[in-house]
Amino acid sequence: MLIEWEFRHERAKVWAAVWDADQWPLGVSGFSPVAGTAFVGGPFPTMGTDYVGNLECEVTELVPVEMIAIDVVAPRISGPASTWQFRSEMFDRDDGGTRAVTAVHGADPASRDERIALGIFTSIASWIYGHASYDLDHPAPRLPGRLSRGAKQRGRCPKPADHDDGENDCEETT
């Protein structure tokens, strides 16, 4: 399986947008784009297959802002788990943009269940690339100043018109 995406933005910005796990549609716990990081993804939605539970993952190779390899283990109800490697690379384009390529290695094309799972992964990767591209093309406006953690948690953010000094007036909590 191979997924390719073209971005109009420089590689460092694309890398940061794509590898922000808080933006992914699949729940992930413990991910960081750092070699050796083990994390959990899921639950893995694969109706019609014998896959069950969460994905056990590990970042096995990393060249920051260029390449990341992630080993993924998908447990099954019966039989051995499936193991794949997702390898994503980013390349500079002549126009200042970025080309991203994700390949999945280790899949068994003869396995109906693996074909279904890879179809889901293709959809997820395309969603991540598409949303990263949209977010880079349409950056969200930022409020002036810094917000305290407590203000963010309570949703008590000052209106921009209330500020002329660049600082926030949110109530500080600990």
List keywords for this structure.
174 residues; alpha+beta; Alpha-D-Glucose-1,6-Bisphosphate, Chain A, domain 4
Structure description:
The protein has 174 residues and is α+β, with helices and mostly antiparallel strands. It has one domain: START domain (Alpha-D-Glucose-1,6-Bisphosphate, Chain A, domain 4), CATH 3.30.530.20. Strands 1-7-6-5-4-3-2 form a seven-stranded antiparallel sheet. β6 and β7 form a beta hairpin. The longest helix is centred in the last third of the chain and has 26 residues. The protein is globular. The chain starts with a strand and ends in a 20-residue tail after the last helix. The C terminus is likely disordered.
Count of discrete structural domains: 1
Overall 3D geometry? globular
State the strand order across the main sheet: 1-7-6-5-4-3-2
Output the helix-strand order: EHEEEEEEHH
Unreliable spans are 146-174
Write the layout of secondary structure elements.
Layout: E1 2-7, H1 11-18, E2 28-29, E3 38-41, E4 55-63, E5 67-74, E6 82-92, E7 98-105, H2 112-137, H3 149-154
Antiparallel strand pairs: 1-7, 2-3, 3-4, 4-5, 5-6, 6-7
Biased composition (Acidic residues): 164-174
InterPro entries: START-like_dom_sf (IPR023393)
Protein name: Polyketide cyclase / dehydrase and lipid transport
